Amino acid sequence: MPIVKYPRATEPLWHEWDRKAQKCGLRHTVYAVNGDQYTGEWLDNLKHGKGTQVWKCTGAIYSGDWKFGKRDGYGSYSILDPVTKEYKKVYAGWWKNDKKCGYGVTFYPNGERYDGEWSDGLRSGWGRMYYQDGSIYEGHWLEDQPGGQGMLRLPNENRYEGGWKDGKKHGPGKFFYLDKGQLFEGTWAADIPKCGILIDFGRVEAPAPTQYPIPKV
User: Fold this and answer.
1) What pLDDT, in 10s, does the model give residues 44-90?
2) Would you say which domain of life the source belongs to (predicted)?
3) Rounded Cα gap, residues 30 and 23, in angstroms
């Protein structure tokens, strides 16, 4: 009786090539088709662990933690200065699902700086903002704007303490006119004082007090 031999099924070569191409663990620099490059750890063909990503189109660089292909954990993001050709740090802090989340510090191009909490890529929670004109806001943030209780200190040391909504003074608050030695205490709505009382406060130490003191009621 003749013996029939069937040819063994051969595995397509691309299966083997695909297995070899799968990235897991620490790898050398991997270049994307668009020129981006990543050096670091992988898991199941996704960036996972510690790694550094460089974007070719912008020259930006991220160095820190990754989780299943997204920035997640602690890391810093920097951009390349077109003039000096040096990297300038833009953000250093915590990330979640590829967005700023948790505590972090952001440096803005105009010299301003935010030091505080983030949520879903927006300033949210407690934070301190240093503005270009020398003003400083310290307090609560909501959806990238002052919201809740906070204090704004102006360059001349005058300050407002009280409620905020949508980035504007809103609700009960106090405005200290330290240059004139006066205090306004009242209620605000959309940055406008609606009602309140004005009294002398620290008039003796004020650098430019009003000519006449406010009479006591």
Assistant:
1) 889 999 999 999 998 899 999 999 999 999 999 999 888 888 899 99
2) Eukaryota
3) 10
